[in-house]
Design goal:
InterPro entries: DUF5954. It is built from seven helices and twelve strands. By secondary structure, the protein is α+β, with helices and mostly antiparallel strands. It folds into two domains: 181 residues, no CATH class; 65 residues, no CATH class. Strands 1, 2, 3, 4, 5, 6, 7, 8, 9, 10, 11 and 12 form a twelve-stranded antiparallel sheet that branches. Helix 2 packs antiparallel against helix 3.
Amino acid sequence: MSFDGMAGYDVINLRSEVDPVTAVREQEATERVLVYPRLAGAGTADFGVAEQDGGRWRIAGLDRPTPMSARALLASALRAEEDPDAAALAAEVARHRGRETEWSLRGRRFRIVRVQGFVRLGEDGPEPLRATDEEPAVPYPDRGFVLDPAAPTTSTDAALRLDLANLAPARGTVPEDALREARDALAAYPGIVLLPLDYAAMEERDGSWAPLTGGTGPRVVRERLAVLVPGAADAVAGEGRSEFAVDGRRLRIVRIVRMIRVGADGPEPARPSDGA
């Protein structure tokens, strides 16, 4: 069956007005761009499941390391519906060992989607927490997130989306097939939807920064860091701080900007070079 396309995938609508809280966020974001002007990929892509139902695409789940693990997530969700047709589709998805990325069921469309994270970089390393960053209201803020590229947005988010829209790996940093697919994606999926932020704890080692752990909010990252690094529990206690020294180690909680590319047919699926 045919499905609706994604309206507004190539549109950025600016808000005509912002409330006082948003204005403060905008001011801090503007200041941070000056201090952390560069964008760099935060590791390899993650994968998840998006569902189109009634014309809109929603995220069903993310943060899977491979397309195969995202297919397992979809199969599990379908089995939980306790519907014979959904169970049959779940079995089909679970059996699949190739690079299939899309299935449909009674007017619903499911797609294995690709998410890329980025950090802002400055002279002192990756961007730390902002004063206006807050804990997410729910443990999994991605779940149910609507992919609506035409939704009104702020000027700083609009500028970020424009920067990300044309960002592709430099030649020599990835295999040629991955580079070709990345450049093809610029044309096929030119729009950008920003997802809820992720956060990561990173450690400086010989002038570079390496990730240690991550989470959906600063508090979760602090809790995981306290368990992971001996002696860190007291250092990371409390809200607001993002940098810590523990036994000579320099640790920082970093903001991870995540985005998904979108085009006329919806969100970008997993690429062949991403593997099965």
